[in-house]
Amino acid sequence: MTEAVLNIEGAVCAPPLTHNEQIVMGHGAGGRMSHQLIQKAFLSAFENPALGAGDDAARLESGFHESLAISTDCHVVFPLFFPGGDIGRLAVCGTVNDVAMLGATPLYLTAGFILEEGLPMETLQRVVASMKAAAGEAGVQIVAGDTKVVQRGKADGLYITTAGVGVIVPNLTIGGAQAKPGDMILLSGSIGDHGIAVLDARGELGFQSTVESDVAPLNHLIDAMLNASKRLHVMRDPTRGGLATTLNEIATQSNVGILLKEETIPVRREVAAACEMLGFDPLYIANEGKLVAIVAREDAEAVLRAMRATRYGEEAVVIGEVTAEPPGRVLVRTTLGSTRIVDMLAGEMLPRIC
Amino acid sequence: MTEAVLNIEGAVCAPPLTHNEQIVMGHGAGGRMSHQLIQKAFLSAFENPALGAGDDAARLESGFHESLAISTDCHVVFPLFFPGGDIGRLAVCGTVNDVAMLGATPLYLTAGFILEEGLPMETLQRVVASMKAAAGEAGVQIVAGDTKVVQRGKADGLYITTAGVGVIVPNLTIGGAQAKPGDMILLSGSIGDHGIAVLDARGELGFQSTVESDVAPLNHLIDAMLNASKRLHVMRDPTRGGLATTLNEIATQSNVGILLKEETIPVRREVAAACEMLGFDPLYIANEGKLVAIVAREDAEAVLRAMRATRYGEEAVVIGEVTAEPPGRVLVRTTLGSTRIVDMLAGEMLPRIC
């Protein structure tokens, strides 16, 4: 009765890796290089019966009343504390969100800590307190943990890996392969806040900023959306690689086109200014408290209303639609009326953003 | 319906941490300092309804047909490859074993990789191949993963954090608090092999050794034991901190005494020689493919027979018994007839052993 889908975040096909290749920072950036690494190093080895669904969590049937959703995330953000959040809140929300994106109710988390010798105990306690608060907000329990210590210089303060287990609402199939031409694309709020807040904490902005990370648990927002529609096809949080990479993943998995209207995508003024100065495109900047949803056209209005009634969906908008052509491609119609292709993030843009 | 027990490996009571305290290597060694860290930094924050069972995995009731067991382990062993195993095999077996120690059938694993920039791809592929083989041997599926990359010098090649989910056989209550006076204590084979094999790989032995790590998945051994007896009270794998620390944990959790016969505890000749030279006590050396079981006296013989019929239990022996007095203490009767107290490992002995 056990059947599992292999799930390593955002896997797509990729050319073979060359010999003598080494890990470089771009392999961790969530874009095309990450996908290639996953494809070559992991997917081929850990091949499971129902292969490569490529969603943020694995859907498991195992003779339970309910199906399980399971996910894991490593967190290596630098610095540990940034405007609006810290590595602890990130570690809880990241995994809660990945489980919830399958339409599952997250219940339990595990937390593994790799600590660097010399880490102040007070820092660890602040991080743990933040995890506790985030878990309380999400309504999940942290039920198992482990701690290892490595020598000075062999880590960067601390790293946290969380795993999450949830139950999937029966008869619900939400996943990256479910987008259909005609569906509407909804976004829960402004993009780029998390990435810019972390850059600010690193002192890399070069000006005063009030941007705060959006890091938040989205499971209650998703509950509201599920109550509003039975035709939610895809939900995903555009983290590493940003909205552009997430939509490219979905376009590939569903073999559909995606057409966005540029002027509908909300970007805070300060985030846009920072991106312009630094030469970044906000479409590629990481978010940690946003989701993109692909919904049957006739339910889009109801879902949008439900989103706007929740704390983390107040600024939800429609940003585009799913098309039959060109399959696997994301296009943006600019304010000038032209259309450009938006590709997946290629290599490294912002390392250690989560 | 959801009820969870907090589970952070081997938690016991501990004095308060002092202000300005920093993380030191001993906090990761699995002994008394690790327990203090867990108690102060984690248990107080992540307090759950049924507090601090302190087993290797969490037992969860959540409205499923079966109860779930969930566990997690970080792996930072140095070097990555050692006689008899590698970090990949360790990461799979460690979590499989923690789930199985609750009398659960491990089904699914997640794997989170923190990779250091510059890691040869071939190294990663060898580790992943080893994980695949170990997962196949254990009969579990790796269903979710994540990969992060940190800059050169910010990790030591790679770290792997695995989490595991299993189903608990109904009506079975196995845990560290279940030992009863009169129970017999069984050990599945020789102790100290893993720790000495890793020291050998580091070139720290100073002589030629043929000792191999015992790293192995023990779930099939446990299946055989469960078939032989319904009165298995405790099972645990004596990893970091060794047999002495594991038995101290159990004595504390069950509030019983434990009396061992020194000459019955199997130690390979080379392991004993290495320990003598280096000033180590094999009772404190880590194992990664051994388990200690506490069984009702009348079933001990049947369980021992069942263990010896399996690959990883061929050398199983009875090493002692549970006593009413002195509660919380582990005593060893030496070959000379004297009795000594065996305390928990205090701080650091062998860092980065798993």
How would you describe this protein?
Chain A has helices at residues 32-43, 87-100, 121-138, 193-201, 219-228, 242-254, 269-278, 300-308, and strands at 3-4, 7-8, 58-61, 67-75, 81-82, 85-86, 104-116, 141-150, 158-168, 184-187, 232-236, 257-261, 292-295, 317-323, 330-333, 339-341. In chain A, the strands form three sheets. Chain A has a seven-stranded mixed β-sheet. Chain A has a six-stranded mixed β-sheet with strand order 1-3-4-9-7-8, with helices on one face. Chain A folds into two domains: 57-168, PurM-like, N-terminal domain (60s Ribosomal Protein L30, Chain: A, 2-Layer Sandwich); 184-341, PurM-like C-terminal domain (Phosphoribosyl-aminoimidazole Synthetase, Chain A, domain 2, Alpha-Beta Complex). In chain A, helix 2 (87-100) runs parallel beside helix 3 (121-138). The first copy, chain A, is built from eight helices and 16 strands. In chain A, 60% of the residues are buried. By secondary structure, chain A is an alpha+beta fold. Chain A is globular. The interface between A and B is large, with 89 and 89 residues.
